[in-house]
Amino acid sequence: MNIKVMKFGGTSVGDADCIRRASRIVAEAARQDHIVVVVSAMSGVTNRLITAANESARGDLAEFRKLVEQLRAEHLTAASALVNDEKQLAALITELENVTNDVSNLCQGIALLRELTPRTLAAVSSIGERLSARLMAGALSGLGVPAAVVDATEVIITDDEYSQAEPLMDQVRRRSAEKLLPLVDQNRTPVVTGFIGATVEGTLTTLGRGGSDYSATTLGAALDADEILIWTDVDGVLTADPRLVPNARLLREISYNEAAELAYFGAKVLHPKTLRPVAEAEIPVWIRNSFAPERAGTKITKSGHPTSDGVRGITAISNVSLITVGGRGMVGVVGVAAKTFAAVASVRANVLLISQSSSENAICLIVDAVDAARTMKALRTAFASDLVHHDVEHITANPDIAIVAVVGEKMCGTPGIAGRTFSALGRKGINIIAIAQGSSEYNVSFVVEAKTMRDAVVAIHDEFKLHLPAVRSEQEIVAGFDPVHLAS
Ligand code: ASP
Ligand code: MG
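Above: the input record for the complex with magnesium ion. Below: its predicted structure, written as tokens.
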């Protein structure tokens, strides 16, 4: 039998009804394949845990006491709704109580010391997954699917960046073989806590916010799974954000590269590192809607959709700031770019886009809005003497902008895409502030004023007729199918 990893996000396990729906999906799939389940915390729980930890560090005990009570109540209510067998329910309740006691003790410790280390924060944030995994296992047992909770601390071994840990793949592979495969062999369904891991010494770590996706693909790669299914609350990856483009269409199959651009950059459907572990092994990843499991979802593979070329989708983000380092004195001077990016890196700001024209009198880059102030400060310090000597004349930040990216694996080698894109914008009177294209050519990005972002995305979506399936096969054309009703 094949192994499939199924990950359920926070909304997909948001309450007893959602967990029941999710457990039915697993039970159904478990009739044909071995399933390894990965769960997120119930939606909103991780945020509340982090708030409680911070309040405890300020010495405010009321917040965490309130939270512990709420968590206990919510999870016990769900447990009673999901598990009928009295003995099983009693055992589950004891486990849930133990986990909520852990958060109580942790927060008391934090309050006593008035100190919250990244390591302790990781321990507090992990509570939600430890609770939801137990509920999911209970629900599965209730459906007659023997399940076993596996704390990811035993399997996902990571480095010691406590809040952004990186799995150590060799170790994860070994631990998966030791801990998960024997369960699978006994026909028991492992239910693994998403989001968390542990160092080699056993100290709990987390993979970063939204990290359960990454947990799933890490385990999928370690187990050499046949596929990974990410169950969420949307139908899959769309051609554009439907809040911007009402006729955006679901993409049936896209490549890892396209997904990385479309699902992370704009729509934030996936944790940014999700596809890393599986791309090399070419394990397909599905994005499916747990609230509508009959819908097909989006399949992510190495090459993407077999016949479609050109533009596949458009993403846009606006919470960003355009930083420009400029001056005529920069022309021909070696090292300005190095100095710019060293300064940006020194404050750990993530650069989303870079552009420099060949006249060299300005370098512009885009960072997340939250990073803008520290980036500006670092640049002004780094270029202090250049500013005095007017080699660099200005360093400015413009927060009223947006990045729009046109994405498609096979745009490469299709001439005219940039031309059509910019003509479409021109016809709408949309001004382009900067342009960038990576040499991989599956993404052409440009910068516009934030207030024109929506119009820009709509104009390009219309230009490339993305509301229609990308390409019809010859048979389809001959058969005269209506393209609107064809899936691509
Ligand atoms: N519960 C974690 C978070 O909210 C991980 C996840 O949902 O994937 O960040
Ligand atoms: Mg989540």
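Notes for the reader.
The pocket of magnesium ion (ligand 2) is lined by residues 9-10, 40, 210 (CB under 6 Å).
The longest strand covers residues 313-326.
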